[in-house]
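R.M. (postdoc): so does anyone remember the format we settled on? I'll just put the structure tokens first.
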């Protein structure tokens, strides 16, 4: 397990205007956003590509909505914490895109290597 890119404790987490925990944690780690209770039990988790943030809400400046895999959660974050979380999600999305791109290049190079091996074996078969 790597060090979290973003970690915030003491966050009130709610779902459909009901409180899930009053002192939860928000983690961005290994390309995932995770919401935890104060006891460390996972409430929800999703890939950073599937997370959407909205807020702060004008009437309540410390209320932010996070959508994880289509489920909407309310988070009590002050404006600086919201900005740090948004920035951490952006960085994690960029990192995940780089990893996907590198994996795509690696699979393409394997395919190219397989093709060249097949061509070489076909040439040997034809010449004999």
């Amino acid at each position: 397990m790597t060090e979290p890119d973003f970690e915030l404790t003491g966050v009130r987490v709610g779902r459909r205007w009901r409180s899930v925990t009053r002192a939860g944690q928000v983690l961005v780690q290994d390309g995932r956003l995770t919401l935890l209770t104060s006891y460390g039990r996972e409430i929800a988790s999703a890939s950073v590509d599937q997370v959407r943030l909205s807020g702060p809400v004008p009437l309540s400046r410390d209320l932010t909505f996070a959508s994880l895999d289509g489920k909407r959660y309310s988070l009590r974050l002050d404006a600086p914490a919201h900005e740090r979380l948004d920035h951490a999600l952006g960085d994690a999305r960029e990192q995940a895109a780089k990893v996907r791109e590198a994996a795509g290049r690696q699979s393409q190079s394997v395919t190219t290597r397989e093709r060249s091996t097949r061509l070489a074996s076909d040439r040997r078969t034809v010449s004999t």
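R.M.: ...and that's the designed sequence above, right after the tokens. Also worth knowing: The first strand starts at residue 6 and ends at 15. Strands lie at 6-15, 18-29, 32-36, 42-47, 51-54, 63-68, 71-76.
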